[in-house]
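Anyone opening a protein record will find just a pair of labelled lines. A complete record is shown below as an example.
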Amino acid sequence: MGVVIDAANVVGSRPDGWWRDRAGAAGRLVGEVRAAVVDGRLDAPVVVVLEGRARPGAAEGIGDGVEVVWAPGEGDDAIVDVVRRFGGAATVVTADRGLSQRVEALGARVVGPRWLRSQLDEIGGRHDG
């Protein structure tokens, strides 16, 4: 089972100034996700979907058990495509209700950004925000 991350939704879940540097915020998220996979807090495969101005934050491709996908258009459509690739056997991280309905119809489980943040924020015992 894969984990598919709606990066725009997760980044937007914290009012930490991400809107001033979308690419930087996306790059930080991908780095945190890779660290979590490497140290066993998240199980691979993990796919992070980036869209729009966030795309330059991380290169497309696979590294450390994390695949970065650049959405050519709407991020939601790219996420649905990834869930299809997993045959519906995926956990999708999003708070987007419309996207949740689309991926649940394919058999995916949906969790909110708080779930992912709880995995990521365990680095070094850090629990901010």
Residues 124-129 have pLDDT under 50 and may be disordered. The radius of gyration is 13 Å. Residues 31 and 58 are 9 Å apart (CA to CA).
